[in-house]
Amino acid sequence: MVAIIFGITGQDGRILAGQLITKGYTIIGITRSLSNINQENFKGNLFYRKAKFLEFNSPTVHDIIDIINLYNPNEIYNLTGQTSVAISFVNPLLTYESNINLTLYILEAIRLTGKYIKYFNSCSSDCFGNCIKPANEKTPFNPVSPYGLSKSISFNYVKFYREHHGLFAVSGILSNHDSEFRKQDFVTKKIIDTAVLIKRGNNIKLKLGDTSIKRDWGYAYDYCEAVHLMNLATKPKDYIIATGNSISLLDYVEKVFSFLDLKYEEHLFIDKSFFRNNEIQNTYLDPRSIKNDLGWEAKHNTSKIIEILINQKLSLN
Question: Exposed/middle/buried for 56, CB within 10 Å: 0-12, 13-18, 19+?
Fold first, then answer.
């Protein structure tokens, strides 16, 4: 089996590649820059040793057709794109180009080659906007950011090509999810890194914005298993990938500091400059459909994820 992964150097790309390699897949990884690969923290990873990497900053439809014809993939995973909500407000054009165009190019390339390829597209719970009750696969989208809007459009492209061109094309609507590969600009990474520094004696404050927001935080390794299952299914179908449990950012902070035997009240500073207009206040998700159809459910709750991430951070030094 051959799988092409767009965005292989990102959190989900790295994890999925490793999981697929252990299952015997040949992995072709697409990255914007090969310099992303040539780093010491990548060289010990299974995917670094086993995958073949191709550099494409902005692949065209013809580039993707050439890649498909050369490697004859069974599956394609689109896990790349601009994922920061904050950046999407500052640079919406970059966000739209990154999250919409590539989706269309891959779908059109698959259609034009006429090959049977299973395609997975990574979407986001931000497509729903604010949730009063748990959203399911039939809940209308109501994005409140350029990022959420871009993911909503890519979702509809996938749906169109599946229904009108007969492609095996699916979108996973993923909630927030973390691992040791999470980038520094994500709030959960910031919370854990700051708490560990405080535990080690650093006299610093954890500066956050609105801590009342609620999110469904999952574990990236669990979610990548769901992503693969969606492409193994007999029939193409979109699914929500989530834990089904949401907690506030303040509760997340409390869990992190409590695990380190710290009192968050002594170290947390609410910085009003971090507050965002149109911030999603509540994310509630219903993942029962993927459990009923494919037998998947999240293995790790928030407390366990925090324990894993803190222990990994502590082990680095």
Answer: middle
Task: Let me know the angle formed at the C-alpha of 17 by 54 and 227, rounded to the nearest 5 degrees.
Answer: 120
pLDDT along the chain (317 residues), means of 10: 94 94 95 68 63 88 97 97 87 92 97 98 97 96 96 98 98 96 88 96 95 97 98 98 98 98 96 88 97 98 96 83
Query: How far is it, in rounded angstroms, from Cα 237 to Cα 155?
Result: 12
CATH of segment(s) 187-214+246-284+303-315: 3.90.25.10
Q: What's the whole-model pTM score?
A: 0.94
| Domain layout of the chain by residue ranges | 2-178+219-244, 187-214+246-284+303-315
Alpha-helical runs (H) found in 114-186: 146-165
Q: 3-class SS at 238?
A: coil
Classify domain 2-178+219-244 at the CATH class level: alpha beta
Q: How many Å apart are CA 214 and CA 211, to the nearest integer? A: 8
* Beta strands 247-248 and 214-215, pairing class: antiparallel
State which amino acid sits at residue 249: L
Question: For residue 134, what is the enclosing H or E element?
Answer: none
Instruction: Supply the DSSP string of 43-107, one letter for each residue.
Output: HTSHHHHH-EEEE-SS--HHHHHHHHHHH--SEEEE--S---HHHHHH-HHHHHIIIIIHHHHHH
d(CA 207, CA 185): 13
Alpha-carbon distance 123 to 241, whole Å? 10
User: CA-CA distance, 3 to 143, in Å (whole number)?
Assistant: 31
